[in-house]
Amino acid sequence: MTQPFGYFVHHQGRGHAERCAAIANALPVTRPLTIFCARDDIFPALPAHVDIVRIPSLFEPVGDEAGTMDDIATPATLHCAPLGWPGIRHAMATIAGWFDTANPALMICDVSAEIAQLARICSVPHVKIVQHGDRGDQGHRAAYDGAAGLLAAFHAGLAQPEWDAAMLAKTCFAGGLGVDTRVPERELARQRIGVGADEEMILVLSGGGGDGFGQAPLGVGARARPDARWISIGPVQRDWHATEPSNIEHRGWIDNPADYVAAADTVIASTGNTTCQQILAAARPWLAIPEWRYFDEQHRKAGALAAAGVACVRPHLPSSADAWKAALAETIATHRPDAQRAMIDDTPADDVAAWLEGLAAKLWTSAPTIISSPDLTGA
Which residues in 83-100 are b (16+ Cβ under 10 Å) and which e? Predict the structure, then answer.
């Protein structure tokens, strides 16, 4: 029987589950895949050769934690490893037990450094998902250095400058992985969302990994550009002091974000992975505003986007009418649609599946036995 792949999926946001599903659907049907995740309801459709094993969350307490050992320092090689948590113990035992019985060819880790190190300790080769951020700490380095391969769900042009040659040599880059990057036709998209063909539309997009942008600065922006129609999708943080004009509306969670991106003249969005891929594929003028994430992930990604010339970046939403006008003007003036489209690969899931299969074959193919020739010289 073909050795299975394992896959740990972090359950915050949507991108982790979406790229896992894309890979699962691209793998050969002869390759069993077992997914470990704290949720089983966040995945798109999965093929028959895939199983999901629910494990406790590695960071969300449920009430049975000891809570008496928090004064014991976490070693630098770990990120989130509190003591006295039965849920973490059960999750790790479940995965380690599967390692023992399944004899997996690979364990793909998205995102936990602890799971990656568990795989290495259990003598299982792992592939670590690489994300942007200040990740030169010992925990990330242990996960990266000990990996058989690294997988980046973005184009190689967005690599961070400090990633060295050894790291890049074992990294598979896949721009657009896990995201439906088909772009609806603009006029049809506008009809579907109720926006007129001649209206200037500014889209504010917030993903599922955070709380969204503040209502007050968006109101300032809408007042600064009163002839445009502002529409937000996703969460918005309500501010009691916000004074919004009539040209902005908040539609909350919607099922067709691709229509909104395709319909927009300008997009204001944070830099979560799914959001990035959708905007780059649609090649829209983009004012990128990074949100807080661990290890400054979105800020470092915003820096990579700016360096590649595919987004206009501000560290936070503009805080005055003049700042809004300047940011929007720069966004439009520096727009490079061809460079944006170049960030999306044609078949990222198929490319990743082929890379994983090739890596597994390389790792598990027996090396030829080298037999020394006898010394016939008598020396």
Answer: eebebbeebbeebeebbe
